[in-house]
Each structure stands twice: as structure tokens, then as C-alpha cells.
């Protein structure tokens, strides 16, 4: 029973992740007919026509996030772990040289969203989820570096640092994250990516300030 | 004309009132000190209480507490200088008045007997000067032995031996917050020596110090590296902002060098901390794996109090009272361990472990 429930959950996660269309970095991330005020500096008349509906492809991964959030609300630890894992694997699958920034923003912001949701006081497994997430992030960071996704690494480091800061504020251990940063830093140094290693080092030093 | 006899009385009452004012100043000073001691004690207590929440990440809280302690520890220089100035001048005035009184009351020639009459004066002046020193130290408790017992300097708060003297503190969980970690890095040796050396580094998120340590890096067959010493750190004030630094983050302390080429891919490391006020050492156990140019931990670090070892610190020497652990070189290494600050190490102790093979690591700790 448990297994079939998890399988169904896994299937729907994979389905929604596969459905997601990641726009290329050269395209603006949410370029469509829909008028999102946060993306505009000047409003041209007619843009906020009520006729212009929300297109389907604008918010990929919304369903995925919803599924995981539901699992968090039910304190269903297995489902949360599977969700995070699938999300990160989907991220690596969808990642291409020309969509590094968009792909990282779309996927990792969902991961961050999930993590923030687990900080709810009513959620009992905050620490487990955080530890699990830290462990998952390590190989992801390595994969990005080893396959030359430098821009994605920078964005990932930013997201991880933001999550680490939140975690430190909540009294969660950040040694795994610092280790993650340190490893990325050393690897980047070895590969001659001074910019990245400096960026990551800065994050490592500021995580608990 | 003023009568001499009467004038001596006036002088005495003047000096009496000055001394009275000095007395009230000391009450004022003691009020300040009491308040400050209370503040500092409170922070110290907070720090001690923190040590019981082991599961939480408290390193930034500890860092902030120690910095807050540092802030309350230094009184601003303006008021303390004004008080000192006042004390100095009143003491000088009192001494002058006393001496004038004596000079006026001398009649006839100066004999050896008159020296005898001046002794109480001399004693009173000496006591006044001691009183001045006492007040001065109390206002500025920085680095003087008189008040260190009541108000320890902020650097003491990072001292494991000092903290371990408190009854109700868990040194283990304080050390756990320091996130002690061992890393081995490959390092091309200086002077173009053919052997490629590795460097073994102790990493600390919070720079705790003042403890004896022992470290060995080994695998199933043999021990590759042995290190021991007495770790004490010294942070001079920041050279740009001149602010004092009671504690640092991201400390890297080089514990020695080892021969990189001979190391196998999988290693274990045990790091033992011997605080002065405890009897069982705190052991950190690491499992590390080679990955390119460095070793990285593969499992969670373990941190526990090793009940199999009982020690006692006597005259700066760690004496083992009970030793039932698997660390084979521990007893021998502790013989060479003195209280002077020093980082000693032995490469490949299985070959030979004598006084001649003990090397000193002089690399200074750095923030990285």
C-alpha cells in the first residue's frame, strides 16, 4: 500500500518535471502575453487587458512544488525526500549549456521553497530534511563543476548560501553546507576558476553572520 | 598672622576632607565595577548554559556572546581617565598637605629620633599609593592579575581549560560547536625537495584554544602521522580598525606535515582533546577518503568522551592514570608533552619513535 502510494507520487512528480519547459537564457524568463508587474518598469497601455490569461507554460514546476508541499503538510517524510531528490535530478536532466541560469532559478527556487516550508514549527522533521538536502546538494555541486556549468554553479551557490543563512538562524547545523562550499572552492581553484572560488569562499565566510 | 598650631589643624582637616572625597570616589568606582561584573557574569552564565543545547547550531550565538563580553569588558577611556585624573590629584594634594604639616611641626634639629616620628607618614603614603593602584586596576581590568580572577579577560572565554574549570559546563558540546575537523591537503614541499608532503590541518569554525591535544592518522595496519602539543592562540588587535579580537571564525591550524605519497586511499583519524579541568579526554573520530589533492570525510564525525582514558594534569604534564584504548602511541607521545605552546609531530612513527624524530611545526594559524 505504502509502496504503491509512493510509486504513484513518484510517477506524477516525474511527469510534471518532464513537462516543464525551461526557456533558454537568451529569452527573458517569463516572456509571454501575461502581464507580470514585477517584471516591468513601465507599463504600456493595454498590457493589463483582462483577456490576457495566464498561459500554461509560464510557471513550470508549480505542480511539483504543490505535491511536495502537500507531503510536508502531511508530515510524510518519505515523500518529501523523494520530492527533493526528483527535483534535483530533474534539474540536472534539464540543464543545458544555454539554459543554465533559467534552469537553476526555476528548479532551485522550488527546492528553497520546499526547505522554507519545512521550517514551519508544526513540522517535526526539519532537521532530517535539512540534512538530507545538504547531502543531496554535494554531488549536484560536483556535477555542475565537473561538466563545466560554471554559471549554474554560481547561481546554485547563491541559493545554497541563502538557505544556509536561514538554517543558521533557525539553529540548524551548517557544517555540511560549509563543507560543500569548501569542496566547491577547492575544486574551482584546481580548475583555475578563481572567480567562482572567491565567490564561494565569500559565501562560506558570511553564512553565519 | 596665622598661628602655626592652628594652621596644622586646618591642614589636617583639609587632608581629611580630601580623603573623605576619595573614599566616596571609590564607592562610585565600586558601583561601576559591580555593575560591570554583574553584566559579565551574566554573559558568562549564558555561555555556560548554552553548552547544554548540544543538538542545536549555536556557533554564531557563542561568537556573539564572546564579542558582547568583549564590549562590556572595556570601559570607554574618557570617564576612566577622568576618574584616574581625579584620584591622582587628590592623592598628590593629600601627600603635600601631610608633608607641610610635618615640616611645620618640626622644632629644633633633625635627629634620628625624628625619623621614627615620620614612619606613620611613610606608611600612610605607601598605603595611599597601593589604594591608587587598586582603583586604577579596578577601573581598567585589562590584563592585570588582580582582577582576572573575578573578571576573566574575553580571550579566556575561548579557553577550553578555563571553561572546563567550571563545574556545570559540558566542554564536549562547546567543542562540538567549534566544529572541529581534520583535513589533509597535498602540498609541494619547500626547497624543491623531491618528496611531496601533505599538510594536516585542524579546522575550527570557532577558535577555541588552551588545551592539550593528541592526534593520530592511521589505517588498519599502521599509524602514518602522530601529532601532539599544547594549543594556544594569540590574536593581536586588528591592524586596521584596532579592535580587539576575542575569537575568530574559520580557523586553520597546521598540525604538521606527512608524506603524501605513502598514504593509502582510506584513513582514519582520532583527535583527542585534554582540557585541564577534566579527567576523560574528548575524542573526535574521522573517517576520511582521498579525493584528488585532499582527503575529505566520508561519514559523520563522531565526538564522544573517551572513558577508557583517564588523565590528570600535573605541573603542566599530562599524566595517564588509565589507558585502555587502541591508540598505541598515546602514552609515549604524552611524555614529550610540556605546557609550553607548541605543535609537535612525528612522521611514520612505526619506523622509529624517539626524541630525535619529533619535529616542531612553526606554521602560524590562519583564517581561511
Care to describe what's here?
The complex is a heterodimer of chains A (209) and B (368). By secondary structure, chain A is mostly helical. Chain A has helices at residues 2-19, 62-73, 77-94, 100-118, 126-146, 150-169, 175-190, 194-206. Chain B starts with a helix and ends with a strand. At the A-B interface, helix 7 of A face helix 2 and strand 8 of B.
pLDDT averaged residue by residue of chain B: 84
Number of helices of chain A: 8
Tell me the span between the first and last alpha carbons of chain A.
Answer: 46 Å
Structural class of chain B: alpha+beta
Tell me roughly what share of residues is in helical segments of chain B.
Answer: 25-40%
Helix content of chain A: 55-70%
Coarse morphology of chain A: globular
Please compute the radius of gyration of chain A using only Cα atoms: 18 Å
The first-to-last residue Cα distance of chain B is 79 Å
Rounded to an integer in angstroms, the radius of gyration calculated over CA atoms of chain B is: 29 Å
**Total beta-strand segments of chain A:** 0
| Most extensive protein-chain contact, per-chain counts | A-B, 18 and 17 residues
Low-confidence stretches of chain B: none
What is the helix/strand order of chain A? Answer: HHHHHHHH
Residues in β-strands, percent of chain A: under 5%
Number of strands of chain B: 14
Number of helices of chain B: 8
* Major beta sheet summary of chain A: none
Structural class of chain A: mainly alpha
The H-and-E topology of chain B, N to C, reads as HHHHHHHEEEEEEEEEEEHEEE
Amino acid at each position: 500500500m505504502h509502496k504503491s502510494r509512493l510509486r504513484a507520487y513518484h510517477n506524477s512528480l516525474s511527469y510534471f518535471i518532464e513537462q516543464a519547459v525551461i526557456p533558454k537564457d537568451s529569452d527573458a524568463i517569463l516572456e509571454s502575453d501575461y502581464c507580470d508587474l514585477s517584471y516591468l518598469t513601465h507599463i504600456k497601455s493595454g498590457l493589463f487587458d483582462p483577456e490576457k490569461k495566464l498561459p500554461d507554460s509560464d510557471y513550470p514546476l508549480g505542480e511539483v512544488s504543490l505535491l511536495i508541499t502537500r507531503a510536508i503538510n502531511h508530515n510524510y517524510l518519505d515523500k518529501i525526500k523523494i520530492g527533493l531528490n526528483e527535483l534535483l535530478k530533474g534539474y540536472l536532466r534539464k540543464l543545458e549549456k544555454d539554459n543554465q541560469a533559467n534552469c537553476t532559478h526555476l528548479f532551485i527556487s522550488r527546492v528553497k521553497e520546499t526547505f522554507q516550508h519545512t521550517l514551519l514549527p508544526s513540522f517535526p522533521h526539519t532537521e532530517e530534511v535539512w540534512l538530507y538536502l545538504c547531502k543531496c546538494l554535494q554531488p549536484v555541486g560536483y556535477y555542475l563543476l565537473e561538466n563545466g556549468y560554471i554559471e549554474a554553479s554560481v547561481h546554485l551557490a547563491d541559493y545554497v548560501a541563502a538557505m544556509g543563512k536561514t538554517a543558521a538562524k533557525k539553529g540548524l547545523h551548517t557544517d555540511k553546507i560549509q563543507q560543500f562550499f569548501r569542496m566547491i572552492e577547492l575544486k574551482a581553484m584546481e580548475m583555475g576558476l578563481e572567480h567562482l572560488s572567491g565567490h564561494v569562499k565569500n559565501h562560506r565566510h558570511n553564512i553565519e553572520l | 598672622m596665622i598661628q602655626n598650631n592652628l594652621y596644622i589643624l586646618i591642614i589636617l582637616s583639609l587632608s581629611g576632607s580630601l580623603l573623605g572625597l576619595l573614599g566616596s570616589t571609590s564607592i562610585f568606582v565600586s558601583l561601576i565595577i559591580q555593575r560591570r561584573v554583574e553584566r559579565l557574569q551574566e554573559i558568562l552564565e549564558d555561555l555556560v548554559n548554552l553548552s547544554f543545547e548540544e543538538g542545536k547550531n549555536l556557533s554564531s550565538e557563542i561568537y556573539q556572546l564572546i564579542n558582547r563580553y568583549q564590549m562590556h569588558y572595556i570601559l570607554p577611556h574618557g570617564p576612566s581617565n577622568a576618574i584616574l585624573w581625579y584620584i591622582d590629584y587628590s592623592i598628590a594634594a593629600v601627600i603635600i598637605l601631610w608633608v607641610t604639616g610635618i615640616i611645620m611641626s618640626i622644632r629644633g634639629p633633625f635627629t634620628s629620633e625624628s625619623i621614627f616620628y615620620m614612619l606613620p607618614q611613610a606608611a600612610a603614603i605607601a598605603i595611599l599609593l597601593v589604594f591608587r593602584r587598586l582603583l586604577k586596576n579596578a577601573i581598567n581590568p585589562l590584563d592585570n592579575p588582580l582582577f582576572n580572577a573575578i573578571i576573566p579577560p574575553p580571550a579566556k572565554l575561548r579557553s577550553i581549560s578555563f571553561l572546563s574549570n567550571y563545574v556545570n559546563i559540558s566542554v564536549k558540546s562547546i567543542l562540538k560547536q567549534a566544529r572541529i575537523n581534520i583535513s589533509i591537503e597535498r602540498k609541494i614541499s619547500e626547497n624543491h625537495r623531491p618528496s611531496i608532503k601533505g599538510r594536516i590541518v585542524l579546522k575550527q569554525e570557532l577558535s577555541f584554544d588552551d588545551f592539550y591535544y593528541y592526534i593520530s592518522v592511521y589505517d588498519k595496519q599502521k599509524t602514518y602521522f602522530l601529532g601532539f602539543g599544547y594549543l594556544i592562540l594569540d590574536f593581536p588587535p586588528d591592524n586596521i580598525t584596532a579592535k580587539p579580537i576575542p575569537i575568530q571564525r574559520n580557523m586553520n591550524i597546521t598540525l604538521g606535515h606527512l608524506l603524501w605519497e605513502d598514504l593509502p586511499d582510506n584513513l582514519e583519524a582520532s583527535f583527542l582533546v585534554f582540557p585541564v579541568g577534566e579527567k576523560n579526554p574528548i575524542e573526535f573520530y574521522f573517517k576520511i577518503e582521498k579525493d584528488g589533492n585532499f582527503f575529505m570525510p566520508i561519514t559523520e564525525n563522531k565526538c564522544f568522551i573517551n572513558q577508557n582514558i583517564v588523565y590528570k594534569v600535573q605541573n603542566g604534564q599530562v599524566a595517564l592514570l588509565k589507558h585502555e584504548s587502541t591508540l598505541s602511541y598515546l602514552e609515549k607521545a604524552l611524555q614529550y608533552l610540556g605546557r609550553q605552546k607548541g605543535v609537535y609531530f612525528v612522521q611514520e612513527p612505526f619506523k622509529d619513535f624517539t626524541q630525535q624524530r619529533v619535529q616542531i611545526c612553526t606554521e602560524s594559524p590562519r583564517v581561511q
